[in-house]
Sequence to fold (675 residues):
Amino acid sequence: MDEKPEQKETKQLTGDEKAGAGLVEKMKEGGTALTKRAIEEAKGYKDVQDTQLWKSIFRVSHDRSDPRNRSLAVLSNVFLHLHPAKINRDAVRYRYTWGMGGITFYLFIVLTFTGVLLMFYYHPTKVDAFRDILYLEHDVPFGKLLRNMHRWAAHLMVITTWLHMFRVVLTGSYKRPREFNWGVGVVLLVLTLLLSFTGYLLPDDQLGFWAVTVGTNMARATPMFGSEGPFGAQLGMTPFNDVRFGLLGGSIVDSNALLRSYIWHCIGIPLVASIFMAVHFWRIRKDGGISGPAPVMLESEMKAIKKK
Amino acid sequence: MASRFKLSKGKLIGLVALVILVLLAVFFVEDWHQLWIISSAPDNIPIVAMLFLVPFFTWLGIKQSRANDRLIVALEADPKLAKTSHRKAEPWRPGWAKEIHVWPYLVRIEFLAAVIVTVVLFVWSIVLNAPLEEPANPNLTMNPSKAPWYFLGLQEMLVYFDPWIAGVVMPSIIMVGLMVFPYVDSNPLGNGYYTLKQRRFAVGMFCWGFLMWILLIVIGTFIRGPGWIWFWPGQTWDHNAVVFDKNVDLHDWIATSRIGKALHLGFLSTNPFKFIFGLLVVSGFYILGALFFHWLMTVDFKKLSLRPLRLFPQDAFEQKLLARTSVLQYLTFQFFAVSVLLAMPVKLILRLALTIKYVWVTPWFNI
Fold:
């Protein structure tokens, strides 16, 4: 990197007619030596992993034959640090885990990525929202693909979340010490459904409008907090101050509902979900990693309950 | 060739079910086009996929449970083997490392899964378009107006319960019920491996709820048409169809029945008797429901028989588990089980088969 300015200097000086011939020779010699050195050094860069740049990014050299390096590759990597360095040999069998939890998280990433791109083309207003979708479908390069992918990934995420839960039940993985993490998972399931539901209104078409109308009409019937729910009227609930009003930002599904839906969908719920996800993954590690396949326990080995 | 093809009991049942399904389809589907419209709607693809995914993963789970259950039986019969065995259905040889490195053995699987999911999503997104209807119009009601498929279970519940139960109380109870699940399951066995033998009741209860949920969604997707009227799969959706359901409340149903008239039970339709009657019915339902779940929990299905009459044989292992269950755990489980797992199908049958609307009518709420 340092040789460039010097070479420039050389050119300038050789352009000078009045400089002595000895000086020219000296410069030429210096130039050749510098080029040689540069070539020599460039050969050293052939091994990319040996450069300062590489080493500054990847803290551990990648050497597959060295077990210590394999461990460090995981432990010193921010993206992999939630993994342990080693796991049970049977834990990688996807027949056991079905991979559904991991796929759910991956779909969340896909949805964040496509969602952010969609946000560039979308205005959450009654005037623009529907037109923006038409614009996305017909004019934006790959806009249709983007929207399709966001929707199908969302549907797939609901499926994988359910199947993940199903697997956890079948393998008894919610048992001690993972009870709390199961609870976190239930919250994440609900958040997934809410994410999907808030996104439904955003195209501002008949499908979303009526689905959200039906959905929020139920909120009207919330006991005590809904204007039509049991004990709601007695507690002074009207269509203009009950829980449905709070959800929609009004008494009908209109521009405020669209904005609220948008903010919950793009900021509120993803933020909350991220926090719960962090706890979910952290607890997996803290509770001893993935639950199995564990050695079977026998009935005769059941310990008596401790009496306090 | 014929001798090599052996038909096991499970395969035979599957085959018979398939034949029945095909026959049903051939004889009862009048309108294939209608069926195609519903099942090929892009937004319904996930639930159609679930119709295959749920049985597949159930089968996969049962298969592994069976393998583990066989191992458990073998180990329990042979304590010596139990001490030396590695106790897994997965293969094992001495000398094999018990643990493997996450890098690359797990990371490569994760990477591969991500690639496959991405490819699937790309293909899916290229082949099928996300639906877009006309612009939102508050003056033009969609008929049928359906929620996204995963909420159709809730929407279908609106038929059987008032909105405050179907839309607010039930979802909350289901959520809390799922959360307390690990705390009421006092069984220490079956932690981290597939088994049915050691956890038949817990797994059974969850599957009951899960399958019921899927069933409600299937009803909401494939059966409910315009006006939320029941159309069998393959029946044409008639937008002018009107159904005259004489939905009556339970107390009226009894009071006006032949027996009710004979016994002069007309007073049941008046307050405060209808309130008291409903209260008694609901309380009775909880007591009977709890007894039913208790029976289900402890009965030994192998010894159960009608001839000679043996309806309450006790399963020794389940008895042992029950002894470990605290009163609080037991009561919590019973509350959620009766309120959701039993109340839901009972209300469904009452409403669909007997056209009964409410079982408990009060001035403030109806159930």
Residues 244-367 of chain B form one domain. Chain B has three domains: 9-88+192-240, 100-129, 244-367.
